[in-house]
Amino acid sequence: MKSFKHNRQVLVAAVVAIGVAGCATQPSTKSQAAASPTTEHAPVAAAPAAAPASDERAARAAQPMPPQPPTEQELAAGIQVLHIGVTASGGLVDVRFKVLDAAKGTALLGNMANAPQIIAGDKPPLMPPHHAIKGSRFAKDQTLFILYPNMREAVKPGAEVYVAFGATRLGPVTAQ
């Protein structure tokens, strides 16, 4: 079992490293401009008048979520889902929670059987790393974040996602 946990940690670290390396290897516009021997620049083409619907959905998903008041479900659970976003070139899902009530939050998250799972459509739920909230103390207005491996690209920007804490399910939340 220890070997499996170690391999999972190595896999998550590799995904993060690949995402960071991919970002670092992109050519910069400064180096492209320096490589050009001419000083004249070609005119830039105008953007198309109407973008396809998928581009509009992606643009909406890229905008930060405005602060929302907690729902009745979130008040009952003592936890509010602030943000769900796909990051690291699609390899990770960033989930942020706010503790609304320390006692309810501790009762819910203090039990590892209630570790928050991400449910996106008919895909299998994404499980948090085993050490994500182990031993955490929860205080009112505390913000927690967990990075989930985005296995099988279960979560995509613009998708409706639920967060399940055991039998308690919050959402849907639109992934960014």
Structural notes for this entry:
With 176 residues, the protein is of the alpha+beta class. It has 2 domains: 2-28; 58-174, Sandwich (Immunoglobulin-like), CATH 2.60.40. The protein contains 5 helices and 6 strands.
Query: What portion of residues belong to β-strands?
Result: 15-25%
The name of the CATH architecture of the largest domain is Sandwich
CATH class of the largest domain: Mainly Beta
Biggest sheet, in brief? 3 strands, antiparallel
Q: Quick one: how many beta strands?
A: 6
Q: Sketch the topology as an H/E string, one letter per element.
A: HHHHEEHEEEE
Radius of gyration: 20 Å
Unreliable residue runs: 14-48
By DSSP (H or I, 4+ residues per run), the number of helices equals 5
* Backbone shape: globular
Structural class, from secondary structure content?
alpha+beta
| Alpha carbon gap, first and last residue | 34 Å
> What is the CATH topology descriptor of the largest domain?
Immunoglobulin-like
* Helical coverage, percent range: 25-40%
* Strand order in space, largest sheet: 1-2-4
Nearest-integer average pLDDT = 74
